[in-house]
Protein 1
Amino acid sequence: MGIDDRIQELEEKLHETPVNKSTETERGRLKARIAELKEEKQQKQKGTGDTSGYAVKKRGDATVALVGFPSVGKSTLLNALTNAESETGEYEFTTLDVEPGMMKHKGANIQILDVPGLIGGAAEGKGDGTQVLSVVRNADLVLILLDPEEMRYEEITQELYNADIRLNKSSPDMKIEKKGKGGINISSTVDLDINEETIRDIMHQRGYVNANAVIREKVGLDRFIDGLMDNRKYVPMISAVNKIDQIDAGIRKEFKEEHDLLISAETGENLDELKDLMFEGLSLIRIYMKKKGEDPDRDEPLILREGDTVGDALDELPGDMRDRFKAAKVTGDSSKFPEQKVGTDHELMDEDILELNLRHV
Ligand SMILES: Nc1nc2c(ncn2[C@@H]2O[C@H](COP(=O)(O)OP(=O)(O)OP(=O)(O)O)[C@@H](O)[C@H]2O)c(=O)[nH]1
Ligand SMILES: [Mg+2]
C-alpha cells in the first residue's frame, strides 16, 4: 500500500471515530500517525526533486505567495503591483506556471509569486497541487485573493492547513527535551485541552522514550501534534476581496468585517493600502544608513525584519562588516536620544538612522 492509501485509510478511521474524551487517546494516535506519514511523503517529494518545475528562486527582501482559485484576478493584481506582465483571461487556468513579479514599496523589493489556481485536493497531490503548495510553504507571507461572487475562503485555508501551513499563528509554546532516563515527564503552566495519557502516547509514537515536556499554552490535540512536528510552517496571511468595483456598498460592509481589505486590481482601488499591509505583514523595517557628516540615505534604505539588531544590519551589508565594527550611532524610535551610541546587540526599529563607525582595512 502506498503512502497516500495509508493516509487515506487512517483519515477514514479518524473520521469514523466519535469526538469525545474517551476516544481522545485513540484520535491522538491516529492524528500523530497521519502527521508522520505526511512528513514522510513531503521528504520523499523533496528527494525526487518533484518540485523542480516550480522551484522559483527567492529574490528581493521578502517573498509573498498570491493564492486563490482560478479567475479571481491574481494575474491582474500581479501586473498592477509589479513589473510583471502576466497573462490574464476570462477563462479559468490562464496561468499554469508560477509567475514571479517584483514590487517596490517603501524602498523594499518584495517578490510576489502568482501561484496557479488552487484546486480541490491540492494537499493530497491532485493536479499540480503539491508543487503549488511547496511554493506557498516557502513564502514569507500568504496573500489570499477572493472573488466576491465565489468566496471559497474556508476551502483555501483548509487546503493550506492540510499542507501543514499554519496561517497567522506562531508555533505552540512548548518545549521538549530528550533525557537519558526517567520516562516521559509532563509539566504545564496552564490547563491543557488534552490528557496526559494522550500526550505520552503521541510522544512515544514520535520516538520519545525519555523526555521532559514543558507546555506553556492551552494546547489541544492538533496544536500539540503541531508542536511535535518539524515540518509545520507558520506564515502570516492577508485576505483580500478583489473586484469590489462590481459590488455595492451593502455587501462591501459584510466583506469588510470578515477580511483584511477590499480591493480592485482593475481600477487600482486600495492597492496602496494593500502594499502597506504587505510591508507590515512581512514585519519589514527600513534603516536609513548615514555616513559621518552626511545626510541619511532615505531613497535606498537597508531592509531588515522587526527584532533585527545592529549586528543583523552588519551581516546584511556587503563586506566583513562585523570584523570592522567599532561602534554605531542610532537616531530614531529605538534610541533614547539622538545619536545614541550602541553596540551590535541593539534592536533597531522602522526608520531608524544608523551611522557605523568602522575600522579601515
Ligand atoms: N471587474 C473586475 N474584474 C477583474 C478584476 N480583477 C480581475 N478581473 C477580471 O477577472 C478575470 C480573471 O482575471 P485573471 O487576472 O486572469 O485571474 P487569475 O486569478 O489570474 O486566473 P487564473 O490564472 O486562471 O488562475 C479577467 O477577465 C480580469 O479582467 C477587478 O478588480 N475588477
Ligand atoms: Mg492568472
Protein 2
Amino acid sequence: MDPGRFFASSRVLIVAGKGGVGKTVSAATIASAASRSGRSVLLVEVAGRSASAPIFGVEPQGYEQVTAVDETEQDDPPRGRIVLQSITPDQALMEWLTTHGFKGIVTRMASSGILEVVATATPGIKDLLVLGRIKAFESEGSFDLIVVDAPAAGHALGFLRSPAGVRDAARTGTIHRQAVEVLDLISDPTRCQVVLVTIPEETPVNELIETSFAIEDEMGVRLGPVVVNSVLPTLAGLDADLVSLDVSDAERNALQTAVTFRAGRAALQDEQLTRLGAELPLDQFRLPQLFSTTIGPDELAVLTKALLAEIEALPEVES
Ligand SMILES: Nc1ncnc2c1ncn2[C@@H]1O[C@H](COP(=O)(O)OP(=O)(O)OP(=O)(O)O)[C@@H](O)[C@H]1O
Ligand SMILES: [Mg+2]
C-alpha cells in the first residue's frame, strides 16, 4: 500500500502495548514514516515524560511543543513536520477549565490540588481530559496525523474506557458532553485507530491478543496493524558447516554454542510470530532489533525505512 494512503486512513493513531515493548520507539517511527510520506505529525506523549525527544535528537521542552523535524521541500516526496507535545492530566484540566468558561476557578484554585478534587468526584476524568485534549488537537486540524504514545497496556485499557465511564457517571452537562465527543472520536475508525505494539515473545504476545479483544469487541475501537518490535534479523550462514572451518577446537565449540543459541532464539521468535498471525487477524509491521544501546536519529532512520517497506508490502485496499 502507498504509505501516504495508509497514513490518510485515520487522523489519530493511539500506540499502546505492554510496558517496555517499544511503544515510544514505535510511535516515533510511525511519526517519522508519516513525515517521510509528506504528512505533518503531532506526536503526543501522555505518560508525563519526554522520552521521544532524544530519539529525534532534540531537547525536551516540558509541556511546550518542540519541532523535531522541519517541513522540507528538498526531499522527494517533501517531508512533513513533526512536532512533539507532552500532555498531563493536570495541564489538560487547567486548559479545559480555561477554555470552558471556568478561568476564575483556575486562578483561584491553581495551586490547591483542584485536579485531585475533581478526580475523586469523577473517576476516569484524568484520562478523559487527556483524550479530550487530543480530540481538540484533532478538531483544530493543524496536523495531518496525531500519533499518541499511550500509557502501558493495563493502563491503556483504563485510558480508553474512561470516556464511557464518565459519560455514564455524569448524565448531563459539560463533562458528559466532553465524554460523548471523545467517544465519538475513538469509536470512529476513520478518525481513530489503536496500534498495538509487542515483541515476539510468549507473554507479551499473549497480552497483546487479550488486549486486542478488549479494545475491539468491548470498546468498539478499531485496531490498525500490530507492530512487532525488536524482531531479530534473519542471519545467513547459521547452517554453515563448522567442521570444515580452519579454527581451533575451542573456537569451533564457541561458534557452535553461539549458532545454537541464535538459531534457538530465531525459532522461538518465529513460533510467536506465526501464533500471533494465526490468533489475531491483523496485519503485522515488523521492526528489526537494532544492536545499539540507545535509539537516536540514526537508528530512527533505519526503523523508519523498515516501517515504510512494511507498509508498502501491504495489499492495496479498494475503497
Ligand atoms: N527495535 C529496537 N531495537 C533496539 N532497541 C530498542 C528497539 N525498540 C526499543 N528499543 C529500546 O528498548 C527500550 C524500551 O523502548 P521504549 O522506551 O520505546 O518502550 P516503551 O514501551 O515505550 O516503554 P515504557 O512502557 O517504559 O514507556 C528503550 O531503551 C529503547 O531504546
Ligand atoms: Mg514509552
